[in-house]
Amino acid sequence: MQNLVIRNSLFRHLKTALFAGVSALLLAGCQGGVLDPKGQVGVDEKHLIVVATLLMLIVVVPVIFMTLFFAWKYREGRTQEIYAPKWSHSTKIELVVWIIPIIIVAILGTITWRSTHALDPYKPLVHEKDHIVVEVVSLNWKWLFIYPEQGVASINELAFPTDVPVEFKITSDTTMNSFFIPQLGGQIYSMAGMETQLHLIANEAGTYDGYSANYSGEGFTGMQFKAIATPDEAGFDAWVNKLKQSSDTLSPATYAELAKPSENNPVQYFAHVSSGMFHHILHQFMHGSMPDMQHGEKAVVDAHRQHDMHAMSDEMTMETEK
Ligand SMILES: [Cu+2]
């Protein structure tokens, strides 16, 4: 009797714990993560995650069940029957253990092949509206967003209109990071001396969390930003105008200051950005040494002329892209 009571209360506790755990997991999935997408890329990725998981569960669930079942059925202490198999080969078992995985791998492979091409982060999104360009730079420990078309920049705050595709050009001034806005989908590494790309779109207006999916040292936890999808283009223009009210400008000299490590950086706006800043940041490591930023924009432009083979091929690529 005593035993039964203990067992019952233990069972009830387990049930409560399990229920709490499952609800926590479900809620975590519902709020702000990859399972709560607000953009088309994220929606497609969620679909892929769900389909792939279900397909794999077709194998995983029976295997877990059979492991427990066989362990119990053929336990040492069993008395009701003696197990004395006389076979060395079973065509039935062979067929099951080969054909089912082959079918699942074939389906998964096809889905993966298709979605890898469909969701290629470098592939511009097909949309009636023109995309806007944002240049992203990961710094120790903050995110710099440059809007080359609007001539403004910001730290740790990103904005774009809802339902307009955004082309991110991404690089790093420092160690590797990964640009990640879970609810919009995709993530792509930022690497010094390299430009990576990501195309995203927000289907719903809102403010989404963004951070790095790649640990980068001491101030990493504070290296977060808000991605604001404004309800319309007027809202985005208002945001740009807000940046234009700032007294700060982003020039090679102020950038040199900005690039110094700092933690938990507040949001900061730049009303003006020197032309070619992103290109300069991207290529600074190819000059053999840090270009003389202190001498201002002219020096940077001159430094660039000296590695024109590279710059020219870059510009040609940019031209052909247009
Ligand atoms: Cu360059």
From TrEMBL:
- Where is it mostly found? membrane
Please report the record's description of how this protein sits within the membrane.
Multi-pass membrane protein
User: Which SUPFAM superfamilies has this protein been placed in?
Assistant: Cupredoxins (SSF49503), Cytochrome c oxidase subunit II-like, transmembrane region (SSF81464)
- Tell me which residues make up the Cytochrome oxidase subunit II copper A binding domain: 129-242
Q: Which residues cross the membrane?
A: 48-72, 93-113
The UniProt keyword set, sorted, is: Cell membrane, Electron transport, Lipoprotein, Membrane, Oxidoreductase, Palmitate, Respiratory chain, Signal, Transmembrane, Transmembrane helix, Transport
Give the family, as the similarity comment puts it: Belongs to the cytochrome c oxidase subunit 2 family.
Name assigned to this protein: Ubiquinol oxidase subunit 2
* Organism of origin: Oceanisphaera profunda
